[in-house]
Amino acid sequence: MAALKVGVLISGRGSNLRALIDGCAGGAIPAEIVLAISNNPDAAGLDHARRAGIPTRTVDHRRYGDRARFDAAMSEALRAAGVELLCLAGFMRLLSPGFVATWKNRMINIHPSLLPAFPGLDTHARALSAGVRFAGCTVHFVRNETDTGPIIVQAAVPVLPGDTPESLAARVLEAEHRAYPLALRLVAEGRVRIEGEHAIVDAPAAAAAAHLNPTDE
Ligand code: GRF
């Protein structure tokens, strides 16, 4: 299977970029990360790509007058690298409708909640104040509205007594690092198709047993 050429967009720490790099290492995923772009020149995350010998680019949004020009600069870099699938990994800029349309069904994102609950910012604090018993993450195809689009993979983690937004974020982040490489593998292996606005995934479903939190044991 020819490796799918992947571009990754980040803005910061890049731990999900690192998880994707590690996932692709040794051919475990039929994908090759050919470019990592940050809109933020100070993003520490690009170091993960540099260490792995992956080309990096900074497209600093502050240097472009408007969003259309910023998107055009990114598109140009992605085209030049031959990117076929785009992964957003902690990318903190809104993308223009034109950019989203160009990459429709070829752009995926990870969000640290069980969508459609808690889209947008401060998701862990909002989950805690809602009193939910499970939190988690979602990998989905990108549509215009923030954190919407066909869902590929979700991972759930329990909310525990005494959780803070930070402790919950750390637990969810571990789940992210499993969910995103899995979603990339399923897409790269051609096991995900879109019907209507649902992603149909050719993979075994999770066990049907209920996950209870709290439990009575
Ligand atoms: C992750 O929680 C991701 O779900 C969200 O932004 C965070 C990025 O973390 N979209 P990192 O830069 O991948 O470490």
Structure commentary:
The protein is α/β, with parallel strands linked by helices. The protein folds into two domains: 1-103, Rossmann fold; 109-202, Rossmann fold (3-Layer(aba) Sandwich), CATH 3.40.50. Helices cover 31% and strands 24% of the residues. It contains six helices and nine strands, in the order E-H-E-H-E-H-E-H-E-H-E-E-H-E-E. A seven-stranded mixed beta sheet has the order 3-2-1-4-5-6-7, with helices on both faces. Strands 8-9 form a two-stranded antiparallel sheet. A hairpin with a 2-residue loop joins strand 8 (192-195) and strand 9. Helix 1 (15-24) packs parallel to helix 6 (165-188) and helix 5 (123-130) crosses helix 6. It is globular, with a radius of gyration of 17 Å. The model has no long low-confidence stretch (mean pLDDT 96). The site of 5-O-phosphono-beta-D-ribofuranosylamine has 15 residues, from helix 1, strand 5 and helix 6.
Give a quick summary of the entry.
By secondary structure, the chain is α/β, with parallel strands linked by helices. The chain is 31% helix and 24% strand. 5-O-phosphono-beta-D-ribofuranosylamine (GRF) binds next to helix 1, strand 5 and helix 6.
